[in-house]
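Continuing from the previous page of notes. For each protein in this section, the sequence appears first, followed by its structure tokens. Read the first protein now.
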Amino acid sequence: MIKRFDHFTMVVRDLEDAKRFFGLLGFREDIAVVISGEKFAAYMGIPGISADHVTLVAQDVTPRTEIQLLHYRTPEAIPDPEIRDLHKLGFNHICFAVDDIEGTVRTMQANGYRTRNDLLDFHSRKLIFLDGPEGITIELSQWY
């Protein structure tokens, strides 16, 4: 049986923009290393892997909540042309609970990040989708 959510990992081309995006949501860089060599090639199933691996941690959140960013040096990352399509099979989106959804949306928009829809009231919370790094969908929720 699981104990808790640990992390999610996303592959990015623009590492600085991804750190900036998640930084606006309260994540801070904790560890940054380069992963490479046979051990990681075997574990990831990617021969010749060399990638920047950056761990971001949500500040003042318990239990510890991480986002791990991978920026491939080799091989080149494979784009997903359907990443924004929420009716495809597989990963759909991740959602973070916030205490002030309107304020968070204003901050994201003031920094050039777009919402994908208007606020929605659903199941005792306000919800909104953001266009995240590399087109991944990030949802915000505020419970009431």
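Done with the first. The second protein uses the same format. Note its length before scrolling.
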Amino acid sequence: MPVYSVNKKAKFDFELLETFEAGLILNGIEVKSIRSGQASLKGAFVTFHNEAAFITNFHIPKYKFSGKVENYEPERSRKLLLNRKEISYLRGKSQEKGLTIVPISLYTKGRHIKVELAVARGKKKYDKREAIKKKDLKRELSHKIKEG
């Protein structure tokens, strides 16, 4: 189960409450580009149109060995494959004040490419500072343990 892309910024900017797994509808060029490790989840989020969920702002560049491809958009909205119950639940969560749905990682499960989504609440500036302090303390402790 190789991981192709991780949204590190989401883990820093948001408090992750719940996670879900979803499939993606992709074309062949996009699959090859993802498998070569070129996809970026930075700044991506989930939107809802009619009875479907879409991942927006998800950047997949054109596969470098593909021939001439006309009208290819690297940041087009891609449909997520979720159950109706999951879609309605996530839509309700996204309409609650302060909550959003963000992708965390992109990986394979068998031969399918999956995206891990999280219901998230935005962190305040002081929460981020606290996270940085904890990370620094943890690093210092690990250095002292290695030395001593």
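What the second structure shows: The first strand starts at residue 3 and ends at 6. The radius of gyration is 18 Å. We return to this in next week's lecture.
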